[in-house]
Amino acid sequence: MFHTPIVPRARKRSRPVDAGVSRREEVKFEDVRLYLVERKMGHSRRSFLTQLARSKGFAVEDVLSNEVTHVVSEDSTASSLWNWLKECAPKNLPNMHVLDISWFTDSMREGRPVAVETRHLIQDTLPTLPEGPTPTAVATVSQYACQRRTTTENNNKIFTDAFEVLVEIYEFNEIEGPCLAFRRAASVLKSLPWAVQCLGDTHNLPCLGEHTKAIMEEILQYGRSFEVEKILSDERYQTLKLFTSVFGVGPKTAEKWYRRGLRSFSEILADRSIRLNRMQQSGFQHYGDISRAVSKAEALALRNIIDEAVHAITPDAVLALTGGFRRGKEFGHDVDFIVTTTEMGKEEGLLPRIIDKLTKEGILLYCDYQASTFDISKLPSRRFEAMDHFAKCFLILRLEDSQVGGGLHIAEGDIRGWRAVRVDLVSPPMDRYAFALLGWSGSRQFERDLRRFARMERHMLLDNHALYDKTKKEFLAATTEKDIFAHLGLEYIEPWQRNA
Ligand code: DCT
Ligand code: MG
Question: Annotated catalytic sites, by residue?
């Protein structure tokens, strides 16, 4: 089956001799630890494959410990394999990839761990699942959102809504660990094409820790979580939530106002010692409108308005709707666009000209323009969560009822005939377009996991500007999002499947 002879490598790293382990090959892929299941494979074939993998720089564990990341089996009867795995029950089993030998063969051929694809997975089938209306087959769910397909249909909203409250309170309290844990847990549940009906349904899912499961158990049993209800009724939480709902007010400012004893907008506006910046002033001025969701019809109307503006400036303009609306959402908190020119360099000065045009049309209610600080020589950047360096502007635009198919999404009885909408425009040079589009399409959790996957699984750095291969020490070019997924060895995920 394998034609690669096992040739001893010239240089081997000698290790202090563990009992029974004489010499080990150098480990090239630190993040991957294999375990080969002997059942069905047989002892001699397992030894042969172990040697082969080690000769190619893979770490292969002799026992199924919590360190193992990839379990490889030739057992074609999935249920008996899963029963055996659950008996061995390493704590980390939910995070392990349980794979068919085809993943191993592909990896040996490539000389590196290939990306796990659906066809490599050994499905955990019905007979091993606990009673209840569970799905017919549960594929192993990846711990990375970029290896899951998540549409806007959320079958587990009762859980994810609760988790999102916990994410918020941990964010307010600046406690990172649990904040991340609940973000990941919510994201995993959003990807499921079925609703969790009992805790047993979650046994094979990654990223669900004890705290998470305790909340889910409460919800399953009582229809609500007491821990979450307590937060929702807490004055500090309610106040911080109210204050941060204002455009330009972050958690730090909200906390400062709360500590001063302020509890309502009227108290803030009446406090003479508070100096609101320009963004916050507009935030309060247009609060009713911009705290109201923007509809898809309104987003499309804005696309027409911007499209007309940019094409009047230059015929080779490129405009793309991005953010939540590109992912197929019906409503969003703002409308995000990428705008550039096919000719490199011509995008410089484009945003100020668009802003000028919108001003002349009388529809610009607020504008915060940030010129480009993009400098290719300063890449790759290790500040993953930081805002990118492209020219951008954060706007509030006036949208007329007559411009929207089906009318504005406004309150009943609102007779103004227009509303204010938050719009973001970002303008990368054309050779950065694919990276900017991927980065601005979101969701935020999808982006976080793309970057984490690149770093942890591929030894690469990805951000909104570029993809850098740390092994080859070179940037990888891309003209489309598909190129980026291919460089990362990931199956392509459509924008509407990125609602992680
Ligand atoms: N983004 C980014 N860097 C930031 C902020 C955002 O790369 N500092 C990306 C991630 C998502 C995308 O831009 C759009 O951001 P939002 O508008 O905040 O998110 P959204 O998914 O469009 O959600 P909403 O529908 O609420 O606007
Ligand atoms: Mg958005």
Answer: 334, 336, 424
- Give the domain range for residue 408: 294-497
Residue 15 resides in a domain: no
Number of compact structural domains in the chain: 4
Residues 52 and 173 in one domain: no
pTM of the shown model: 0.76
Q: 378 in ligand 1 pocket by Cβ < 6 Å? A: no
Give the CA count within 13 Å in the CB-facing half-sphere of 186: 24
Q: Which two tokens stand for residue 311?
A: 């094409």
Same domain, 219 and 264: no
Give the pLDDT confidence of 147-188 residue by residue, as tens digits: 999 999 999 999 999 999 999 999 999 999 999 999 999 999
| 478 in any annotated domain | yes
Same domain, 412 and 273: no
* Residues 404-459: tens digit of each pLDDT: 999 999 999 999 999 999 999 999 999 999 999 999 999 999 999 999 999 999 99
Residue 19 falls within a domain, yes or no?
no
Span from the CA of 333 to the centroid of ligand 1 (angstroms)? 9
* Ligand 1 proximity of 334 Cβ (cutoff 6 Å): yes
Q: What is the DSSP string of 77-127?
A: -HHHHHHHHHHH--TTGGGSEEEEHHHHHHHHHHTSPPPP-GGGBPPEEGG
